Each structure stands twice: as C-alpha cells, then as structure tokens.
Amino acid sequence: MLNIALFSECYHPMRNGVVVSVASFARVLTELGHHVTIFTVRHPDQVGPESGVIRFPSITFPMRVRYPLAIPIATGEARRLLAEVPFDVVHSHSPMLMGHAAISYARRKRLPLVFTYHTLIEEYSHYVPLPQHWVKRRAVHLSRYYCNTADHVIAPTRHVAERLRRYQVTKPISIIPTGIDIDLFDLVPDRDLREFYQIPVDVPLLAYAGRIAKEKNIPRVLTMFREVLRREPDTHLLLLGGGPFEQPVRELIDKLGIGHRTRMTGFVTREQIVQGLRCADLFVFASHTETQGLVLGEAMACSIPVVAVSADAPRELLDDGVEGYLVPDEDEPFAEAVLTLIRDRELCRRLGAHARTRADAVSAHRCTAELVKIYDQEISYRHPARSPLLPL
C-alpha cells in the first residue's frame, strides 16, 4: 500500500470541481487501503477536527467568495509529517502556491510528482484586471512550466490533453476523469426540494448545478428558458449553486421576465445538489470552459438526461440522442431540445436511464484504480527493482 501526499489549493469548505475531485480520489484511495494525507490551505470557515488533512498558513482577502492565498511554508504538524512520513508519491492538484510547495517537497525527497490539470487557466483570464492578451500568455506559460516540471500529467478529458500538447507540454499525459461517486449519490436521502422551493410536483423542472460564474454561460440558459416558457408556461428552472455572478444573473432574470418560474438557491451542500437533481426532469448546461464538466456526470448519475451546449467536455461525456442532446449555443435549438424532452415523458425517462448507465461506467472506483497504476509506474521509474546477482 502507498503513502500518498496530495497538495491542493482548494479543499473543503470551498465548493468547486477541484474540491470534489480531491475528496473523491482521497476517499476511494483510502478505501483501497492506501494512506492519504491532504495538504491544503487554512480556511477561515473551516471548523472542527479533520482526519488526514493538514493545512498551511494562508491570507484571506475581504471578498464575497473567499479563496485564501497559501503561504507555502510548512509549520507545525505539516512540517513534522513532511519530515517523518515516508511518502511514496506526491500528487499536486494546483499549479499555484500549494503546487510549488509540492514541487519543493518532491524534489527534496526525490519522489515522483504527479499533477492533475483541473482548470483551463487561460479561459479564466477575465478574473485578472490586466491586459487580457498578456494574462492569457502568462496562463499558457504557467501551464506549460508546471506540467513539464511534473513527472506525469493527468488530464480529465481528451480535449484537455490535446490543449496541453498545443501548449508544448512534453511530459507523459494520461486521461483519467474524476470518477462519479455513485455509492455516495445513492446514499443521499430523498428530500422534496420542489416543495421547499414552491415548485408544483406536476410541472416540468429544468435544473442547473454549479458555480454561478461568468464563464458558465448562464445567460444562455436563461434566454433559452424564456423561449421554453413561451410554449410551455408551467415549466420551472432551478439554479443550484452560488458564486460571484449571482447579482448579474438575478438582474437578467428580472429583465427577461422569468422570475416567477426561476428559483436560485445560493450556495448549497452536495447533498442538496443531489436532492435537487433528483427532483428535476432534465439538466441544462451551457458552459464552454469545462475541463470535464463533472456536474454533467453527477446529473446523469441521478438518472436525468442532459441538454448541453456542444462544447468539448459535454461531447466527451455523452452521445447526442442517447443520454441527452448536444445543441448549438443558440436559444432556439437549445429550447427545442428541452421542449422535446419535457413533452415526451417516456423519451425523457429512457434517456435518463441511459445517462445513469453512462455514469456507472466512469465510477470513482474505476477511475481511482487507473490513477493507482500511474502512481505505481512512476514509483517504479524512480526506484526500479534491483536485478538479481548472477552467480560468478
């Protein structure tokens, strides 16, 4: 069994896809008998003891969505564990400050460094208030540098691997998606969120889950929904999640006149997301920036079909007409696909069943088993078994 050090800038109580990925892999690795320690940042909202989680000092800025900035200097328990525990492999989930702490430790201990490229940083340049062409170039440079510093790169999808090759990443790249926690999903108790959000039980319900952020292209979901309401006025839309773009989204909802049929939840737990998806008839998604679109798989695990704008991540996860529909980033075809499903309940149920089967194929246990193979491979390269001595 392996001693694995995971380094991540993001972990609970933050809420995003990286957190889900780190927590999922850590849980299954532990179930398989491996020893996992997560090194992450101290977060002001973290309360209570944590098993297997060591936090580095951090600085938190007064922002609505708090992402602490790591001070990548090991102190206290972190320093002791990094000095004493005989880790076999270091797995970084960030190219930022915690990622550089991972590089430093792996080099000092001569351990293999595996890196998962979770985020197409280039697509998030709008968060940096500097000239965008310069920010994008720096994002590409950072991605290339960090990937080529690692021994092995994990890409969650084929299109991410192809993007990294265009960035001139030369290190080995393996495609391993974040698996769907099917077992955890099935253990979530049922709860009637329709009643909680005052949505009638017998009306069509569309759901979106994820961060309410500019890059998620939520205005397209809203303008599409306006078209749906013109022909099926009882339909409702449930937006599960919170984020920095909530106020502009609320303003657009008012401007479009769809507030009477739209519910925004704000930040919710993963359990509530699962419960919300179970109450929905189908899942709608318009983002172009996903590396994997983990939430698509989570919706499919809840046995509901997906209607998504035809971007790289959705194209890899679902087949058009089988688990849902892939549509152009335009209101009319998006709305037509949604209307087809809410008007044909049997078709919606059948595609939902196919979606669940597809989600089962990318379960967390299957994906983690592939990750362990990478660990074993990289450890063997660093510490090859000695050849037996031949008799003289």
Sequence-ordered SSE layout with sheet pairings:
Elements: E1 3-7, H1 17-31, E2 35-41, E3 53-56, E4 58-59, E5 69-70, H2 76-84, E6 89-92, H3 97-109, E7 113-116, H4 132-149, E8 152-155, H5 158-166, E9 173-175, H6 182-187, H7 193-196, E10 205-209, H8 218-231, E11 236-240, H9 246-256, E12 262-264, H10 270-279, E13 282-285, H11 294-301, E14 306-309, H12 312-317, E15 324-327, H13 331-343, H14 345-361, H15 364-382
Parallel strand pairs: 1-2, 1-6, 2-3, 6-7, 7-8, 8-9, 10-11, 10-13, 11-12, 13-14, 14-15
Antiparallel strand pairs: 4-5
Helix pairs in contact: 1-15, 8-9, 8-13, 11-14
Strand content: 15-25%
The H/E string reads EHEEEEHEHEHEHEHHEHEHEHEHEHEHHH
Count up the helices: 15
- How do the strands of the widest beta sheet line up side by side? 3-2-1-6-7-8-9
Profile the largest sheet. 7 strands, parallel
Class inferred from helices and paired strands: alpha/beta
Q: Fraction of residues in helices?
A: 40-55%
Number of strands: 15
> What is the overall shape?
globular
In the CATH hierarchy, what is the class of the largest domain? Alpha Beta
Rg calc: 22 Å
Task: Please identify which CATH superfamily of the largest domain we are dealing with.
Answer: Glycogen Phosphorylase B
What count of domains describes the coordinates?
2
Arithmetic mean of pLDDT: 92
